[in-house]
């Protein structure tokens, strides 16, 4: 008897249960049995190939459901923009269920763990609620709201099937030149620690609870500290600095029960994190006692020999023995499996290492309830992208706005004549940024929502006369105010590295110049993933509002522009006075244009 359970051949429901006993056989299929017993029983039935397959994840485009099952793959992912046609919740659920059906039809019936990057809502899916990127959420200083965002995101993800979210990024971005700065909550570890509440939102009260997904603390460790903000570059700092700046968010994530950790592409003092046994096994697993699963990043193992080429046996051995448990091998799953099998047969990777990895992976699968409920929870689709979810996003947009300058043009007056211009005024793709519908994101009407211009029109109401021209053509002195919505266009990861400057582009400068020429007060709204180099232009602007990357609910920007909600955001990134100052971070003695923690509001009326 174990904890009141009968562990006979036909294992029964809890002893003393009055209902007719169900029969669960084999043991690991019994949901009433403690997870560790289920894991032990299942692993005792697994072959070497079963165990190796469990440690490998492939991209959905590379394997059919049956091929994934034949390889005994433990996991499938949709990379950024890897979506079914049509890109709808129903089609996602059908796709997901097909992989799951094939997986549970294998002899041991181990369900697959399907992962997606839902980094600001379920951003791959058309019509999903897209939240502000982390750069804006950090400025909102509302961890409870961020937890709620996690909960809404998890619900929309689970409604389409996947039970694993490769989020949150708990990176501490120390250099604005980094293309992933917007995935960071701020330049101090405290910003990531404060907002690690999103993990609780994503994972719910338990992984098997309705609408919960497995969260991923990423990217371990020091991804935001590379020299020059070089994505996937080299973080050249002491261990003391690494432990002071980049490790604390992972300690917080572990405290909050994050079920997985993703390894960073970057290096620490010249050694790739994907091969770093000290960081992964000695620090993360032993010192920090992380008991979840450790996953590699996209072909991250392929970089270990110094170039991002074909996978080698050395790279497989080094990364497995470093302590990574599950390998994101989008298009090389079969090769990874055969190389790892050879390393095990040669005694260069131990059975104990395979067992550690499988124990961690299977524990999360049992905890997620996948053996009992492997399929998409379509009942959640009724709320997908709905008004209630979008209201949460709009609140986050409002709270993330940071007012940096105001000589009286803000708040806009309802009933006034407002001219709106700029490439980011009426473009939901630009205001959502990278990781939206596609990996890199893109300009244009890529999904449903409200642009900032539409928000201005809605919030301004019928009495406010709003004229729009992207380039600013037609503006004249008859307007009460001119609003230029400018800044960056979408990018992700290294595509967003800006080693040569962060100034506004020629189109933006031309648009603002036209508005300024009329003598009408000019309000500039920056839509960007980071502070921009605007010092030389700022003098001619009456007001400046940093909107960051607000996502689909652009009306939240208008809520602040018209004063329906007074600006409350505070910078979590020092705003450099000049590009040459970079990196600039609070406490480093450099004088910022707008310091960390800065943010104005409107006078109380
Ligand atoms: C990417 C990113 C990582 C993401 C993964 C899967 O390269 O580095 O954040 O989770 O691949 O899309």
UniProtKB/TrEMBL annotation:
GO terms for molecular function: beta-glucosidase activity. It is an enzyme of class 3 (hydrolase). SUPFAM superfamilies: (Trans)glycosidases, Beta-D-glucan exohydrolase, C-terminal domain. Residues 1-19 form the signal peptide. It catalyses: Hydrolysis of terminal, non-reducing beta-D-glucosyl residues with release of beta-D-glucose. Coiled coil: none annotated. It comes from the Bacteria. One of its GO terms (biological process) is glucan catabolic process. PROSITE patterns: GLYCOSYL_HYDROL_F3 (PS00775). Keywords: Glycosidase, Hydrolase, Signal. InterPro entries: Cellulose_Degrad_GH3 (IPR051915), GH (IPR017853), Glyco_hydro_3_AS (IPR019800), Glyco_hydro_3_C (IPR002772), Glyco_hydro_3_C_sf (IPR036881), Glyco_hydro_3_N (IPR001764), Glyco_hydro_3_N_sf (IPR036962). Its EC number is 3.2.1.21. Belongs to the glycosyl hydrolase 3 family. PANTHER family: LYSOSOMAL BETA GLUCOSIDASE (PTHR30620:SF16), PERIPLASMIC BETA-GLUCOSIDASE-RELATED (PTHR30620). This is beta-glucosidase. It comes from Amycolatopsis albispora. The lineage of its organism: Bacteria, Bacillati, Actinomycetota, Actinomycetes, Pseudonocardiales.
């Amino acid at each position: 008897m174990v904890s009141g359970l009968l562990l006979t051949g036909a294992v029964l429901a809890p002893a003393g249960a009055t209902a007719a006993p169900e029969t669960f056989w084999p043991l690991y299929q019994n949901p009433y049995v403690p997870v560790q017993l289920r894991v032990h029983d299942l692993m005792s039935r697994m072959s070497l190939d079963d165990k190796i397959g469990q440690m490998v994840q492939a991209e959905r485009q590379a394997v059919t459901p049956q091929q994934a099952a034949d390889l005994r793959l433990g996991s499938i992912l949709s990379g950024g923009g890897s979506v079914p046609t049509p890109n709808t919740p129903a089609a996602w659920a059908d796709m997901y269920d097909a992989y799951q059906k094939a997986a549970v039809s294998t002899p041991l019936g181990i369900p697959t763990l399907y992962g997606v990057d839902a980094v600001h809502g379920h951003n791959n899916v058309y019509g999903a609620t897209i939240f502000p990127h982390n750069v804006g959420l950090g400025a909102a200083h509302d961890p409870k709201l961020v937890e709620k965002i996690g909960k809404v995101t998890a619900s929309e993800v689970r409604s389409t099937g996947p039970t694993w979210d490769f989020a949150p990024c708990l990176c501490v971005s120390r250099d604005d030149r980094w293309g992933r700065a917007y995935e960071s909550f701020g330049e101090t570890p405290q910003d990531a620690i404060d907002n690690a509440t999103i993990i609780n939102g994503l994972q719910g009260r338990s992984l098997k609870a309705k609408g919960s997904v497995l969260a991923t603390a990423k990217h371990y460790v020091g991804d935001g500290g590379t020299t020059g903000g070089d994505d996937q570059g080299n973080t050249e700092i002491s261990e003391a600095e690494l432990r002071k700046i980049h490790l604390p968010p992972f300690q917080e994530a572990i405290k909050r029960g994050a079920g997985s950790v993703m390894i960073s592409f970057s290096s620490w003092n010249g050694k790739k994190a994907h091969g770093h046994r000290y960081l992964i096994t000695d620090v993360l697993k032993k010192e920090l006692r992380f008991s979840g699963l450790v996953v590699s990043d996209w072909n991250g193992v392929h970089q270990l020999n110094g170039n991002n080429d074909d996978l080698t046996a050395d790279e497989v051995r080094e990364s497995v023995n470093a302590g990574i448990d599950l390998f994101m091998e989008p298009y090389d799953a079969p090769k990874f499996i055969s190389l790892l099998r050879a390393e095990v047969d040669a005694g260069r990777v131990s059975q104990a290492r395979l067992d550690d990895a499988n124990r961690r992976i299977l524990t999360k699968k049992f905890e997620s309830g996948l053996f009992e409920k492997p399929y998409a929870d379509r009942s959640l689709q009724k709320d997908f992208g709905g008004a209630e979810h979008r209201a949460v996003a709009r609140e986050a947009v409002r709270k993330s706005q940071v007012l940096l300058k105001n000589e009286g043009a803000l708040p806009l007056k309802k009933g006034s004549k407002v001219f709106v211009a700029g490439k980011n005024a009426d473009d939901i793709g630009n205001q959502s940024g990278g990781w939206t519908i596609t990996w890199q994101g893109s300009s244009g009407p890529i999904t449903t929502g409200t642009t900032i211009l539409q928000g201005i029109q809605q919030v301004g109401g019928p009495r406010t006369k709003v004229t729009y021209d992207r380039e600013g053509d037609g503006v004249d002195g008859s307007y009460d105010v001119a609003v230029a919505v400018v800044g960056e266009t979408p990018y992700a990861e290294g595509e967003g590295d800006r080693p040569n400057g962060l100034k506004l582009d020629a189109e933006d400068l031309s648009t603002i110049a036209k508005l300024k020429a009329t003598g009408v007060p000019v309000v500039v709204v920056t839509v960007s993933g980071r502070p921009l180099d605007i010092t030389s232009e700022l003098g001619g602007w009456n007001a400046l509002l940093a909107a960051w990357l607000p996502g689909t609910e652009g009306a939240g920007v208008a809520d602040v522009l018209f004063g329906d909600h007074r600006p409350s955001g505070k910078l979590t990134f020092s705003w450099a006075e000049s590009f040459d100052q970079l990196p600039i971070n609070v406490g480093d003695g450099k004088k910022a244009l707008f310091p960390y923690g800065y943010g104005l509001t409107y006078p109380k009326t």
